Amino acid sequence: MLPTASLAAVTPHQERLARGAVAIVECFQEIPCNPCATNCPSQAFALVSDINALPVLDWDKCIGCGICVACCPGLAIFIVDGSGEQGVVRLPYEFLPLPEVGATVLGVGRDGAAVCGATVLRVQNSPAQDRTPIIWLQVPPEHIMSVRHFKF
Amino acid sequence: MEQREIVVIGGGPAGLSAALQAAHSGARVTIIEGEKRLGGQLIKQTHMFFGSHKQHAGTRGIDIATLLENELRALPNVEIILGATVLGYYYEDGALTIEDHEAFRLMIPKRLIVASGASEKFLAFPNNDLPGVYGAGAVQTLMNVYGVKPAQRVLMIGAGNIGLIVSYQLLQAGVEVAAVLEAAPQISGYLVHASKILRLGVPILTRHSIKEALGKHTVEGAIIHRLDDRWQPVPHSEQQITCDTICLAVGLSPLCDLLWQAGCAMQYIAELGGYVALRDEGMQTSVPGIYVAGDAAGVEEASAAMVEGSLAGLSAALSLGYNSPADEELTAELRQQLDDLRAGPGGAKIRSGLEKLHPTADNPKEVT
């Protein structure tokens, strides 16, 4: 139903994924919106005058800081890290209660279906995130491009 | 009879922006809002806004309301009347009648900006009068204004932005969403809003509609069915859904009664939600001195409503002689912002609606 076929276009090549944290921008529809580009401290997003244009991220400039994750009004940006033995997915999570660090949760995909077990590594909730907490999940490396939410 | 310079009707995003701009230009502004606080629908918007930073993108609607209100309250030339209802406009003498805490007031403004917003459309189906059938706005008010959990399990009708956003807010409040139905073949709201509820496991059923509500005294469920290419029910496609609430998010219509009363030239434009007033680029209607902005001028996103409000406020103030050298540049800048917001595929409906908006034989009043 959703144009996830476009997923390939927003997925960095294997070598970049293995190098460390990078943003995956799952924004597939031209809508008037640009906070990701204007808030990026690394100027990794192409700055274009048309605010309807799809965001274009330069994966080599992206440092995986996660600022765009909390400022994306569509909650459509995730950080994945495939550099370790275990993969890490950071995702926006606007629900209460927040999970405890160390908790075992069920990672789910874009359709809400179960993908794999996951462990909560970190709960980021600074004032700068403006009430969009970011949860760091440890998942098997083959699932970093699949887990986009979790249940517990 | 009270005399005023500029009266703005409605304290939502369009009205607040209109009042702010007119007051910044130097005019004395009175803003009248029916609720006890300013903000209109913004106070129910817990999500971050789209658009650019000029329309406060990335900031939550509720926080934009506070931001605009604080800015307005800091200005000495602004009068704020809350909890008052504008009852009518008398074109003979340009008077507004107002119910203000059980007192009757008559007010004659030199300029009037109508930013009265929109009302929710309803849907006809058997048992739609059962308690438990709500408009999405009511559900949002219960949850986000009064902190009341409105349901245990909801069936949402409509996958436009309101249906998708309210579904997400219901899930945040711990309410189950059984499904979101959309009669059209595709989701009409932003896909990012759809993705937020799909990953929470909520099915979005396109080409589906409600056949009837079930229940004796209150809603206990619903029968839904599939629609074919011609929007007709597919035989034997019925499914039963268990839910205690049915939430309707099937579109909005501009609230333009006051504009009709004032004798503004009106035109029916489906893409803009219903009847809307003809207006010029500065949002002045066919009646000189009466301006329109926001959903009352055509149903659209709140970011566009804010820009339209600023335009209306600026042109109303200009027409009273409150001008500055920067006005021309500001006008051009605001028009550019509107064009930018409407430029993408999501703005196609609005663009096509606005193109149709012009004087016709049935609607002879020229907008000058």
Q: What's the short version?
A:
The complex is a heterodimer of chains A (152) and B (368). Chain A has four helices and seven strands, in the order H-H-E-H-H-E-E-E-E-E-E. Chain A has 152 residues and is an alpha+beta fold.
What brief labels describe this structure?
heterodimer, A: alpha+beta, seven-stranded antiparallel beta sheet, 4 helices, 7 strands, B: 368 residues, alpha/beta, FAD/NAD(P)-binding domain, seven-stranded mixed beta sheet, five-stranded parallel beta sheet, 19 strands
CATH class wording of the largest domain in chain B = Alpha Beta
What's the rounded overall pLDDT mean of chain B?
95
The pair of chains with the biggest contact is: A-B, 38 and 38 residues
Question: Can you tell me the CATH architecture of the largest domain in chain B?
Answer: 3-Layer(bba) Sandwich
C-alpha-based Rg of chain B, rounded? 21 Å
- Give the fraction of residues assigned to helices of chain B: 25-40%
Helical proportion of chain A, percent range: 10-25%
N to C succession of SSEs of chain A: HHEHHEEEEEE
What best-fitting shape of chain A do the alpha-carbon axes yield? globular
Order of helices and strands of chain B: EHEHEEEEEEHEHEHEEEEEEHEEEHHH
Bin the strand percentage of chain B. 25-35%
- Span of the ends, CA to CA of chain B: 30 Å
Per DSSP E runs of 2 or more residues, the count of β-strands of chain A stands at 7
Q: Class by helix and strand content of chain A? A: alpha+beta
* Poorly predicted parts of chain B: none
CATH superfamily of the largest domain in chain B: FAD/NAD(P)-binding domain
Counting structural domains of chain B, the number is 2
